[in-house]
Amino acid sequence: MKIKELRELSVEELGARRRELRQEMLNLRVQQQIGQLENPARLHLLRREVARIETILSERSTAAQAA
Q: What backbone torsions phi and psi does residue 23 show, to the nearest 5 degrees?
């Protein structure tokens, strides 16, 4: 997802999306260890998307504290 699409999601939706991505990353890391990973670049993309989500959540919590 793009950052614009992620910013439109609620905190609960972002949390759920983060959990899904982390689970997928775990599955891909297991595949990598046993030599069955077909697309290693997917791990990099997932890690970046998780970082985007965490950044948005951090921005929102900082804004809520400031208000």
A: -65, -40
Categorise residue 9: left if φ over 0, alpha if ψ from -120 to 50, beta otherwise. beta
Over residues 8-42, the pLDDT tens digits come to: 999 999 999 999 999 999 999 999 999 999 999 99
List all residues 6 or more positions away from 29 whose beta carbon is below 8 Å from its beta carbon: 43
Total-model pTM: 0.90
Exposed e or buried b for every residue in 8-33, given b needs 16+ CB within 10 A? eeeeeebeebbeebeeebeebeebee
Name the one residue in this structure whose structure tokens are 């791990």.
43
Cα separation, 59 vs 5, whole angstroms = 16
